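User: Structure with magnesium ion, tokens only please.
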Amino acid sequence: MASVDILLGLQWGDEGKGKVVDFLAPKYNVVARFQGGPNAGHTLEFDGHKHVLHQIPSGIFHEGILNVIGNGVVLDPITFKREIDGLAPFDLDLKRHLVISNKTQMIIPTHRMLDKAYELAKGDKKIGSTLRGIGPTYQDKAARKGLRIGDINEPDFDERYNQLRDFHLQILERYNFEAELDEEEKLFFEAIDIVREFDILSTEYLINEALIEGQSVLAEGAQGSLLDIDFGSYPFVTSSNTIAAGACTGLGVAPRRIGEVYGIFKAYCTRVGSGPFPTELFGDKGEELRKLGNEFGATTGRPRRCGWLDLPALNYAAMLNGVTQLFMMKADVLADMDEINICNGYKIGEKETNELPLYLDTDNLGLMFDTFSGWENDKVKSFENLPESLDKYVKYIEEHTKTPISLISVGPDRTQTLLKENF
Ligand code: GDP
Ligand code: IMO
Ligand code: MG
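Assistant:
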């Protein structure tokens, strides 16, 4: 029987998951998203085009791969229609290559409004949500009130939609949020008609049957491990399990079906939205990294906060996920820097530790660093023959994580990817 390999982010999202899923997709028969929703922005670049996918899995540009939106995802039909429309010029046979779980939870317009109302009410304690309705939709899922994509083909769909919307409107009224719904609902029902044209299935059967037939499956994570609802920097997290375990519940595959777990990280760190970020760089240094890395959100356009690689946090994520291989992204961004730092341990008061405290922004958190120098980017041509200082950087991370790095990314394009021999 084949297995499900998982590719997921080890930091605060935007590690470059879309790029690598697109790069590896030809090795797989199925690519599946298992959590998150339109809060994700996964960028793919090839043949001079740049695409940002939010809900559609990043295997969509390859012939002959089935892309699955799993039950663990929250899907916004309006964003979905917009994505489908955006892909129209590329002549992809989407209805044949994309299926949706009948158990995928649905984001309705008032979920987005609630997201806004809750954030406004939090004032300066706001999460910095993408305002895509993610939190309120997962909230309704857990409260057993949610609508699922399969419900759009049930005879009482309109009635159940009205009931949920009216419940939301009551809450919005208490927040003094003026809900203007006419245009939104028009778009919503137009989009529902488009969703109906796709196969809406019990994708847990489809995936498990594919595995029995020996077909390989790649599960594509969204967000990153430090945004996980249980293990991330709570409450500044997203509302789903972004770690490997989420792939089991988000697709309906048993833990014993999991094969490789590819953990992807930037050679430094970024974060969008609020919340603690121990190695964050402020002032000119942070600005330099943001510029060199073009660190602006793919979904919201917000500037990303930038900082040095944080090994205690990376090791924590690798542990939670059972990472078997590491992929290091954006090595090119550090190349020209005279001095690059890696945080290799924390100090809480006088005590040195590699464990993350309950709150990462605890006042007395000290950081310990090792320093590296840059390298000539044009000399980065093959994995086996890296410039000395990049080689040193890679080996240092491998040693401190006890995990091999098997892919190094040196630019946004599909072709700017170095893969270890015999991968
Ligand atoms: P995702 O959410 O994990 O898929 O990542 P995003 O697409 O949000 O952000 C990653 C950004 O970095 C995108 O703009 C990518 O095009 C870009 N990118 C990916 N890999 C590399 C790389 O190796 N070097 C550079 N310079 N950019 C990269
Ligand atoms: P990809 O898949 C980076 C962040 C938001 C906010 C917090 C909660 O592209 O890596 P939410 O809208 O989920 O309620 O926001 O999580 N966030 C992301 N940051 N990349 C993402 O996705 C993110 N999805 C959510 O900025 O801090
Ligand atoms: Mg992103």
